[in-house]
Amino acid sequence: MKDLIVIGAGPAGLTSALYAVRAGLTVAVFEKSVYGGQVTGTAEVENYPSIQKISGFEFANNIYNQSIAQGVEINFEGVEKIEDKGNYKVVKTASGEHETKTVIIANGVERRKLGCKGEKEFTGRGVTYCATCDGAFFKKQDVAIVGGGNTALEDALFLANNCSKVYLIHRRDSFRGDKILIDAVLKRENIEIIYESGVEEIAGDTNVKEVKIKNLKDESISTITVSGIFVAIGLEPKNQMFSNILELDKAGYIVADETCTTKIEGVYVAGDNRTKFLRQIITAAADGAIAAVQAANYVNTGK
């Protein structure tokens, strides 16, 4: 039986694993996809203390390699369910059941989908959710990006460096992101902003060829010709698998305060998947440290 099982290998999960191993706990991490979480889709990280600038991919690699070097066991396998057995927990995966004294849930969040016609059919064929991952495939082509927050603004600027033209589709008549990003976007000649509009349909043949846009004021439909469309409309948690034992809020986030404790003793939550004010790499890492110390105290004292 492990002292701790961590679900998720993003900054929160790997930080918690590092702290727990250094506290003398036996630790296993389960990750359903790739390590690093949302940070792997970030072109540059410039707001993490002591690091002036680093790519998201490099940041993820560094924390992963650091975890391995410290002896953290990482399994690339998704978790299906957690069961509370009182003084121990059972984490169920495709390979079987894993017993542990404590659990830290750090599964992060996922990109929100548009839900329009053609989105699913053209995902991977022009529809993408990561500008930094896939932007290079659209060099000197026309593309569209959907969203109005900081991520959409950053992605628009990133794409404008390589693409011929970037259409920025936003459902409101103004942006709510950081002023420095808004000003930068407005200055770019090859970024065209389409306000008060949403995507009605994504169409093409083998790949995306055009996007039909609906004006939300007069409901008129227009069409733009693009080779790709980047979706940046926010994030959503995937916590339903834990709803059998934990409380979720209306948006699906696990209810927990700054102590990262849940209503179940021995189960903690860290990172973007919990109710919190600010979702950043640094707050995810902070959660990971707090949750790990909580787990260590529980293992050592039974409380």
UniProtKB/TrEMBL annotation:
Catalytic activity of the protein: [thioredoxin]-dithiol + NADP(+) = [thioredoxin]-disulfide + NADPH + H(+)
Keywords attached to this entry: Disulfide bond, FAD, Flavoprotein, NADP, Oxidoreductase, Redox-active center
Keyword Oxidoreductase: yes
Record-linked InterPro entries: FAD/NAD-bd_sf (IPR036188), FAD/NAD-binding_dom (IPR023753), Ferredoxin-NADP_redctase_2 (IPR050097), Pyr_nucl-diS_OxRdtase_2_AS (IPR008255), Thioredox_Rdtase (IPR005982)
Cofactor(s) named in the record: FAD
E.C. code: 1.8.1.9
FAD/NAD(P)-binding domain segment(s): 2-288
Keyword match Nuclease: no
GO molecular function, one term: thioredoxin-disulfide reductase (NADPH) activity
Cofactor: record remark: Binds 1 FAD per subunit.
Family assignment from sequence similarity: Belongs to the class-II pyridine nucleotide-disulfide oxidoreductase family.
Subunit relationships: Homodimer.
Protein name: Thioredoxin reductase
Organism: Metaclostridioides mangenotii
Phylogenetic classification of the source organism: Bacteria, Bacillati, Bacillota, Clostridia, Peptostreptococcales
